[in-house]
Amino acid sequence: MNEYTIHSAKMVPLDRSNIDTDQIIPKQFLKSIKKSGFGPNLFDSWRYIDAGFPGQDNSGRELNSEFVLNHKKYKGSEVLISRENFGCGSSREHAVWALQDYGIKCVIAESFADIFYNNCFKNGLLAITLPKDSMAELFRFAEEGEAIHVDLVNQVILDLNETEMVKFEIDSYRKTCVLEGLDEIGLSLKYSKTIKNYENAKKKQTPWIFK
Amino acid sequence: MPRTLYDKLWELHEVIKREDGTHLLYIDRHLIHEVTSPQAFEGLRVAGRRLWRVSANKATPDHNVPTTNRELGLEGITDDVSKLQVTTLDENCKEHGIEQFDISDERQGIVHVVGPEQGITLPGMTVVCGDSHTSTHGALGALAMGIGTSEVEHVLATQCLVAIKQKNMKVEISGSLPEGVYSKDLTLSVIGKIGTAGATGYAIEYSGEAIRSMSIEARMTVCNMAIEAGARAGMIAFDQVTLEYVKGKPFAPSGREWEEALVQWKELRSDDRAHFDKTVDLDGSKLKPQVSWGTSPEMVMDIDSTIPEPRSNSESDALDYMDLKTGMRAQDIRLDQVFIGSCTNSRLEDLKVAASIVKGNKVNKDLKRAIVVPGSGLVSRAAINEGLDEIFKEAGFEWRAPGCSMCLGMNPDQLDEGDHCASTSNRNFEGRQGYKGRTHLVSPATAAAAAIAGHFVDVRQVLKS
Ligand code: SF4
């Protein structure tokens, strides 16, 4: 294990498929022009009894005791686990900002919607896909209140005795994004000349695009 | 090697393949709205970066704009937080010199209606926007994808997207759609069949007789909901119908450039024997009007059937949320509101179909509200020229100003708690149209017929009588 490992992380289990980004962060909070401050409104309509609105003091709102995020045993969880097609729907990156602002460092699910998956890595939020049976084991683990280590360098999830539970796949580009926190734009701008050349050729070929 | 339409569009825009396996894909057109762009502009500012190519970007506010009191312009926005988002877009466009159709411009509207309408999006282009329904523009034979805010910033600064190529999926619809069955029913049927993750990791090409015989507006409805099937991009080959649609649009090429463009655009189709990683076939002539009963767009049923037995926890949760029971007939679902609008179904053709059903009838007295929200100022004007607004108003519909409106209710147009709404939009997620609101996705024709009846009816019967 190394400095990129998420150590002794508690897991909060969201046992539902197709969790959409409208649930992760409801529309009224998208009016913010900032990237921060979304944490208190993560899963707002499931988490609270009332309808939330932006700019509100959330500390006095009544919590929905049935929603897992509010269960005492899952307080302080850094890993969120779920089922299929997590993060489907709207492209709102606010969903990722909200998860991170709340304190989630890693989401593990059977599968992810494409845009959400991309958005995670652009912000250094680790998203891991695991097969159904491994997810079942993690769910069991979470419900028993057990924690895990997530070792990104070696692409493995370990229990607290450091015994390997399961290995995971991740492409090298996305892995580097999380490990090194890449400045993607800076990296792409290193190809400025290539982009310019491409563009100049295109100007001759399809001039109507440049209007 | 024979190539698919997606392969061709991809190759035309590939700037470089990098060592790490990612590609830089050149972006011809970037559409901007007020919700997903402020943080991207802020990011540029902090890093001291400039726009790569200003003219590639076109903007319009849509999500937050009110659909009433529009003559007041910005002053018509009563919510200060919404107003700040709209004025932030104004300022960012001004600072960078980006062309914008602002709240007072007649050309303002939902970004996915405005793009094709203006010829801002064209065949053969790569089009991106910080909005998942960017797939709509694929109907023109373009590669169009929704992106997140970090990617918006990346496109602003580099005119490229860091991308990994997806797999090819063909959705082939044979036959022709029966009377009373529309492109919305088709696209919902496809999602019902393959599921909301059925096309994750794929780019979809829709083809077959049913697609070929559709107008561009109807094709846009199909591609709009590719994202609801999990695909980032949906597209349709260029043909004569596309040509006629694009011709003469304000930003479309003309004269010699038009001739040159046509030569290139005619290649925008999959070669015979091109390889698809997955193919889905549907017989269009067997399709029926669709109604969604749950909280995911895959939870749909035929209008003449009953709500199915839940097959998962998600489905039973959905039934609870919707307050519906297995075995109930679609036609027994009583409605509180009807919404005709959104980037799925707010174009002239949609409003015409709905108006033809509404004409001479009255909105059911049990309904709280029925609204029509045209997709853009120009759609609105065209509809008014044809007298459609009068037909709707006489029936008891409210005729509103253009924007996203009750598709997601970031403006004041929202459902009340517990309301059932027949909606021509694309998402029936919990609370999407208003806190604890209940959305049923349908075609404009079904929405119109439902507004008159106060509950769902089989629009095929309505058209017969
Ligand atoms: S109409 Fe609805 S789906 Fe379309 S862009 Fe607006 S909010 Fe999104």
Structure characterization notes:
The complex is a heterodimer of chains A (211) and B (465). Chain A has a seven-stranded mixed beta sheet with strand order 4-3-2-1-5-6-7. By secondary structure, chain A is α/β, with parallel strands linked by helices. Chain A has eight helices and seven strands, in the order βααβαβαβαβββααα. Chain A has helices at 21-24, 44-47, 94-102, 114-122, 132-143, 172-180, 184-189, 192-205; strands at 6-13, 79-81, 106-109, 126-129, 147-151, 156-159, 164-167. With 465 residues, chain B is an alpha/beta fold. The N and C termini of chain B lie far apart (53 Å). The relative contact order of chain B is 0.13. The model of chain B has no long low-confidence stretch (mean pLDDT 97). The interface between A and B is large, with 59 and 77 residues. The site of iron/sulfur cluster has 13 residues of chain B, from loops. Iron/sulfur cluster binds next to loops of chain B.
SS summary, helix count of chain A: 8
CATH class descriptor name of the largest domain in chain A: Alpha Beta
- Strand order in space, largest sheet of chain A: 4-3-2-1-5-6-7
What is the element string of chain A, with H for helices and E for strands? Answer: EHHEHEHEHEEEHHH
Biggest sheet details of chain A: 7 strands, mixed
Brief sketch in words of this structure:
Chain A is α/β, with parallel strands linked by helices and 211 residues long.
Secondary structure elements and their pairing?
The complex is a heterodimer of chains A (211) and B (465).
Chain A (H helix, E strand, L loop, with lengths): L5 E8 L7 H4 L19 H4 L31 E3 L12 H9 L3 E4 L4 H9 L3 E4 L2 H12 L3 E5 L4 E4 L4 E4 L4 H9 L3 H6 L2 H14 L6
Parallel strand pairs in A: 1-2, 2-3, 3-4
Antiparallel strand pairs in A: 1-5, 5-6, 6-7
Chain B lengths: L4 H9 E4 L5 E4 L2 E4 L5 H10 L9 E3 L20 H17 L2 E2 L10 H8 L7 E4 L13 E4 L2 H10 L1 E4 L3 E8 L8 H12 L7 E6 L1 H4 L3 H9 L8 E3 L4 H7 L8 H11 L12 E6 L6 E3 L7 E3 L10 H10 L14 E4 L7 H11 L10 E4 L4 H9 L2 H8 L2 E2 L20 E4 L14 E4 L2 H10 L5 H6 L1
Parallel strand pairs in B: 3-4, 3-6, 4-5, 6-7, 9-10, 9-12, 10-11, 15-16, 15-18, 16-17, 18-19
Antiparallel strand pairs in B: 1-2, 2-8, 13-14
Helix pairs in contact in B: 2-5, 6-8, 12-14, 12-15
Bound molecules: iron/sulfur cluster (SF4).
The site of iron/sulfur cluster (SF4) has 13 residues of chain B, from loops.
